[in-house]
């Protein structure tokens, strides 16, 4: 049994490395006679997109064309709040402007601007694009991935809850047996020790944020559709998660928490002038640390994997794969641990901050 599992993990690892290499090569928009730019390709990969790149095909003339899954583009004019909705395929991967009514849009490096009918972008003296931009609320790659994960979470946990209702006094089976130890661990080892007897009020949030981060981290490791989206490596996503924790901590905090910030017991009043601003700054540094920690760790993993793969294209030799591919496989396995570790750290620190805000005065 152990040998069979080892073979399965080895096969899975080789498939992940193979697909990452294929997709990485396919995402290179440069021609063969141009110098490979790893930084550009890596940051295009970890950034958000208005379509879902699948692979590239080469036509009879030797030109490469991207095969991608288009996503809805939703743009709002800030002047009259008019809304234009269309598929991202109308941009032809940023090569063609799109005209809707009396307005023309052009996409440049995944950013959409107002342009003339020819799609000309104007630049200022510093070389920055001066065209105005609409309000972009499109369903991008990251958003569609989060919606996909939300559906997966609903399916998984509704089925687990249904199984508990059917067999309330029986041993867990299937998905129950996998998720029950994790849920019990979060309750007994994270929520109760950090929050205390009020843990039940905050346990749903802690479970939600843990599984949301974990599932998104795992999906981001998969290098092919529907994976490869750098969701928790997007600082806007980690910002929202940190803001949720910030709001829960400060909106449910008791009077002892605020008394400690504005009138610390036993502290000379002369020092309050210094300590109160420090404590107020601490209110914001805690969620800021949550945001940066998750963003930096997940992004670093993606960049490291793509950097190792890019060595093959930089030196233009297949022999380098003998050294880089085992390292990529090792990092992939390590990222499986990082995926759940970062979810645990974010959940544990959130529970710790909540516990500090609701603890009773002794």
Principal-axes shape call: globular
Give the averaged pLDDT, no decimals: 83
Q: What is the count of DSSP helices, taking H or I runs of 4+ residues?
A: 9
What's the N-to-C terminus distance?
54 Å
Largest sheet: 3 strands, antiparallel
Question: In what range is the share of β-strand residues?
Answer: 5-15%
**Oligomer status:** single chain
- Spatial arrangement of strands, main beta sheet: 4-3-8
Summary?
The chain has 2 domains: 72-138, no CATH class; 142-358, no CATH class. It contains 9 helices and 8 strands. The protein has helices at 2-26, 38-46, 141-166, 175-195, 199-221, 235-251, 255-262, 269-315, 321-358, and strands at 51-58, 64-70, 72-76, 83-87, 98-100, 103-108, 111-115, 135-136.
Describe the structure.
The protein is mainly alpha-helical and 362 residues long. The chain folds into 2 domains: 67 residues, no CATH class; 217 residues, no CATH class. The protein is built from 9 helices and 8 strands. Strands 4-3-8 form a 3-stranded antiparallel sheet, with no helix packed on it. It is globular and about 75 Å long. About 6% of the residues have low confidence.
Record the SSE blueprint.
Elements: H1 2-26, H2 38-46, E1 51-58, E2 64-70, E3 72-76, E4 83-87, E5 98-100, E6 103-108, E7 111-115, E8 135-136, H3 141-166, H4 175-195, H5 199-221, H6 235-251, H7 255-262, H8 269-315, H9 321-358
Antiparallel strand pairs: 1-2, 3-4, 3-8, 5-6, 6-7
Helix pairs in contact: 1-8, 1-9, 2-8, 3-5, 4-5, 4-9, 5-9, 6-8, 6-9, 8-9
